[in-house]
Write the structure tokens for this entry.
Amino acid sequence: MYDHLKKLQKKHLKKASEVLTNSFIDNPMFVYFFPILNKRRKILRSVFPMVLRILQTNGSLYVTSDKVEGLFCVSQHGEKTKIGKLMLAALSCTFRLPIVFIQLSLIDFLRKASQLQTTNSKLNHYKTYYENFLLVDSVCVDPQYRHQGHMTTMLSAVIAETKKKRTFCLLQTETLQNVKIYTHLGFSLVEEITSDQIPFSTFVMIYDPLGLTTNRELDT
């Protein structure tokens, strides 16, 4: 399934962080949290190395090649969190936290974060009622390598794993363009989550080839 991809290695971390920054710099959620472009760029450059290390503790990170044209993380809900790895990741990130805090207003950040709680309700529903499904996170392709098939390559691997494990797969996005891409690849839009307090929508998408969630959705 992932033979044509590479597991993220230490040598990829710097480039992967750059790709995440370049890919998410205009993401509506990060614009909402950090409206000033230069400050947003500095924060993302500091945050994404920490994000990568944390994602590695409970999921598998893949890159398209050693050039890191794109990357994504896939994890299986229901697997136990690797506490030891999580603690090591947290310790390795501590030196970056002061850089982040200097760049933002913590009170403003916490206020905005609290307003995003409703966007997690749909995923929490699946986490409550289902086990052993796949979650995909941080899917991105560096802008300079877009429209070359890298997104299809990455998501096709996830789709193949979903079919092999006879389960379903979930992801979230904040952009309509991504909704179109994921729909083209076989995902369906479960819900568009909106709020009067938040200036963007969150789209929850599912790939469920066996219809495992259909009857349960009707019952809940």
Notes: The longest strand covers residues 198-207. The beta strands are 6-7, 60-63, 70-76, 134-141, 169-173, 188-195, 198-207. The chain is about 50% helix and 20% strand.
